[in-house]
Amino acid sequence: MSGIIKAERQAERWQRIVAAPDEHINIAEAALVIAVEEYPDLDVDGYLGCIDDMAAGLRKRLRQDITPTETIIALNRYVFEELGFTGNADDYYDPRNSFLNEVIDRRLGIPITLSVIYMEIGRRLGLALHGVSFPGNFLVKCVVRDGAIILDPYAGGASLGVEELQQRLQVLHKGVDAAPAAVKGMLTAAGGKEILARVLRNLKGIYLQQKDLLRALSATERIIALVPAAAEEYCDRGNIYLDLECFRAALADFRHYLGLRPGASDAQEVKQQVAELQQVVARLN
């Protein structure tokens, strides 16, 4: 299969993912399709098979009557001790930490990609696992009969109680306390598109820091495809277009941002940018 045909097929695969309801999205497949842009010859189905094999390797060891809690203990030992998945604290902002194929190959990742691996293996074992977009650190929630267990794959699958989550928020918010009810409100399950958008936002942030505008633009466009109502993404894309001297595209995005967020705190600043760009575009005509 030629590279052009392969790229077209992966583009069609991405469009199918974007158009699907959240509950029908295969997060691992979608994350691998995101990686195809960086790795054009990536074998998406081959890596999905690798996840299947990892899950099968543990499943055959588990008793038929094993409880969810016992399964979590076995999963933690298997994923983080036997398979060796761990957080890449030494080079956290390496873009490879956000590409699922690289995470599988290198056994290194960041909270969200380790969580995806953890959820994908755990779900194949029958665990009711859901991603949680907790501030500062993506987590995993396992629904059990009498509630839910909150797990941190970046910390080896550690189970976190409300007090520990409060402490994390206190550090993140510089000493401001969060009430237990507020913490529990932050533990809702993230949808598939929300998870994928968070992966892409990580990549966008890395690329912007590296001044890699074209890759940052591509990541932003994919976020918008997933979450068309995400106003801040139009503003970010407008700024990228501005840096690329694509003035008409930047103007359109800033206008769209203001349409979605007319009362934004930076609305006046963006309006001024729109006025200046209108003059620039007028001179281009």
Q: SS-based structural class?
A: alpha+beta
Distance between the termini: 43 Å
> Looking at the structure, what is the overall shape?
globular
- Uncertain runs with pLDDT below 50, 5 residues or more? none
* Largest beta sheet: strand ordering: 3-4-5-6
Count every helix, treating DSSP H or I runs of 4 or more residues as helices: 13
Mean pLDDT: 93
Number of strand segments: 6
> For the CA atoms, what is the radius of gyration?
21 Å
Our estimate of the beta-strand percent is: 5-15%
| Main sheet attributes: strand count, strand direction, barrel closure | 4 strands, antiparallel
Helix content: 55-70%
| Element-by-element helix/strand order | HHHHEHEHEEEEHHHHHHH
Question: Can you put this structure into words, describing what you see?
Answer:
It is a single chain. The protein is an alpha+beta fold and 285 residues long. It is built from 13 helices and 6 strands. The strands form 2 sheets. The protein has a 4-stranded antiparallel sheet with strand order 3-4-5-6. A two-stranded parallel ribbon has the order 1-2. Helix 2 runs parallel beside helix 9. The longest helix is centred in the C-terminal third of the chain and has 18 residues, at 192-209.
Topology:
Elements: H1 3-19, H2 27-36, H3 44-59, H4 68-82, E1 86-87, H5 100-106, E2 108-109, H6 111-124, E3 129-132, E4 139-144, E5 147-152, E6 158-160, H7 162-172, H8 180-185, H9 192-209, H10 213-226, H11 231-243, H12 247-260, H13 267-284
Parallel strand pairs: 1-2
Antiparallel strand pairs: 3-4, 4-5, 5-6
